[in-house]
Amino acid sequence: MGEAHVGIFAWIKGGAPSQVIISQKNGVNWLMADVDEGTLRTELTIPAVTARGQTIYGPPLVSSALLTDGDWHRIGFAWDGANRILYTDDVEVGRDESENLASSEGGLIFGAGAGLKEGSFFSGLIDDVRIYNRVVSP
Predict the structure, then answer these.
(1) pTM, whole model, 2 decimals?
(2) How far apart are CA 99 and CA 109, in angstroms?
């Protein structure tokens, strides 16, 4: 893996679809269980600005790795300057090209979604959260 400009890893157990593990205050959900099946998902994306000056975000990156099976999983997200990469149990489970990410400045929320929306609170366990701004690998 090349130089990573963003990396976040955590241990989680349990939870349910649509529940968020880590989000950004007034931002997006960094790591969460996807709304359909409870697989690992990130909403950290490239921002796009419309002609009216409104910021819209690109699609989330969703893996096929199930998080909500009741077992402990080490999950993670890395951005190496060219790709968004998702990890589950130290195995790459999702990747797409992304030359830039939306700003990740601001406070983080652990165990709830951005905006503290109903249904976003994580009902499982979260442990050993690590955030990096340097080269990382699982």
Answers:
(1) 0.86
(2) 25
